[in-house]
């Protein structure tokens, strides 16, 4: 049993090692960081058997996890291959560090530029999502950061196996193993210890359930980017192509219901509700539908929705259905009950689509496409460290660029300030 003082000393030593490693990673060449990433991808594939054995142990111990969490925990050969592919895609992205974002010459002759630099040390805190281990490591390395990973206890053995592949890749490129570390304990108090280290940690990113995010936000003395719940909406507009709408709703709900970009509520314009709702019910036989009074009147087979349903993140084959007057009504519903994650409109009217894009301020807004595209890999980031619902610094799927900032670089010829 580790005492509180021993735990705090251990966490601090991990963070101190990460801080030292972050300086080395930041000063490494782009080629060196990319060599590490490609070696990590190779090591993931070479170590896939060990990773699957570790994952099987975690799954065997996860007797009390909900189906959605089990799905996130489970790895197979195809998912491991995707992890390696995502790391390679990050390596192939253009260099970030040292990129000049803009230069101007001031009236006094000073040349002022903004240059992209790493954030430093990132504390990544997540639950039963072992894929985050390699995604976070790859993105942090591409951005020149060190990272400290604290995965959920449910995935502890899988995360350790994946960490071994990451550190093997770091060794190939002569980068320190301490650039990517895993907190070696699963008690929640270790998280509180970690996010209090404002002299060593530059940013904390919690990714998981509402309880985890609130815990981190309440205990942190470092900046926190919240990757909050996904209450995602699909609005079927009066001018929707109903065949397209049916395909989008089904994909958004059924393809993988336990992820944060799955649709949780469908809003249907009143003028097409009688035509669309029965077809939607037929297209979603495995989904429990919970409707408002008007939807239930049109389709008595629906369960009656409660007020809590409109803000629910089901992460399951359950879908709320509401009939709305028009586009402004749909936007108002999203503003009241949404979580600033992802919203979609299905319409053939360009003006209505543009108004939806303008009026809805969630982190990802789509026209005639499934909410499931709200994903770093799908949107060209290679991988993502999560989907930020915090507007400051980064908003939406966060890739490597979201893990950098800029500094001012000023070149003069002897100017002094009067």
Q: What proportion of the residues is helical, as a percent range?
A: 40-55%
- Strand fraction: 15-25%
CATH fold-level label of the largest domain: Aldehyde Dehydrogenase, Chain A, domain 1
> How would a textbook summarize the main sheet?
7 strands, parallel
Kindly state the number of beta strands. 16
Count of DSSP helices?
A: 14
Order of helices and strands: HHHHHEEEHEHEHEHEHEHEHEEHEHEEEE
Detailed description of the structure:
This protein has 418 residues and is an alpha/beta fold. Helices cover 43% and strands 19% of the residues. It is built from 14 helices and 16 strands. The strands form four sheets. A seven-stranded parallel sheet has the order 10-9-11-8-7-12-13, with helices on both faces. A four-stranded parallel sheet has the order 5-4-3-6, sandwiched between helices. Helix 6 (131-142) links the parallel strand 3 and strand 4 (146-150). The longest helix has 24 residues, at 4-27. The radius of gyration is 23 Å and the shape is globular.
Features:
Aldehyde Dehydrogenase, Chain A, domain 1, 418 residues, 43% helix, alpha/beta, single chain, seven-stranded parallel beta sheet, four-stranded parallel beta sheet, 2 domains, Aldehyde Dehydrogenase, Chain A, domain 2, globular
